[in-house]
Amino acid sequence: MNLAAFAIALALLLLTPGPTNTLLAVAGASQGFRRAWPLMGVELAGYLTTIVPLVTFAGPFLEGQPVVSDLVKLCSAAWVLVLAIRLWTAPAPTAADTCIKGRCVYWTTVMNPKALIIGLALIPSAGIAETLPYLAVLCMTIGVVASLWLALGSAVIRAVSHRHPALVGRVAACFLVFFAISLAGRAVGLV
Fold it and tell me: Which stretches are transmembrane (predicted)?
């Protein structure tokens, strides 16, 4: 895959709603864009934590190990479900603010299935010199997409949360439960 095709596929993948994007939007709503801005770096660190070892070492190993792949999906689903429970049970009006910390964004991103797709399917397993341009595009795209999700949360979701304080956390929790169920379903072969 050439860099242009990679950039387009990556942008489309990262723009789709998912666990990390949900957390970023909620953080933008609860903390505002400026206060939540450092979470972009945390997201990037989470993606790189997963993607670099996948591209470097795990790609060839995982091709012949579908059970390991399914276990990773189940662990990801469990983590997303824990986040959903935290968002649902957090007291209003700070429902979103109680969970959206750097460690939550980091671990959610580390276990995000998008990282697996990027590391195992989009970035070619090659030498470091061939991989670096892909990683540079990845870093830039994550910055742009994370900014968009933070801005969405800061502008749109924040306005809703002032009128209905618990609604944002509860809706985000519902999205996260949906993602957890779809991950678990894929892992056990139902989806």
Answer: 37-59, 71-88, 134-160, 167-188
Please count the structural domains in the chain: 1
| Alpha-carbon distance values, 36 to 16, 46, 53, 93 (Å) | 20, 16, 27, 17
C-alpha span between 187 and 73 (Å, rounded): 6
Q: Are 59 and 155 in contact (CB under 8 A)?
A: no
**Residue 120: its H or E element:** none
What tokens does 38 get? 């450092």
Q: What is the pTM of this model?
A: 0.72
In tens digits, the chain (191 residues) has pLDDT values of 789 989 998 998 898 888 899 889 988 888 889 999 999 999 999 999 999 988 888 766 666 777 876 787 787 778 778 877 877 787 654 444 445 789 999 999 998 888 888 887 788 877 778 889 999 999 999 999 999 999 998 888 767 666 776 776 677 778 778 877 876 887 787 76
The Cα angle at residue 183 between residues 119 and 25, in degrees rounded to 5: 80
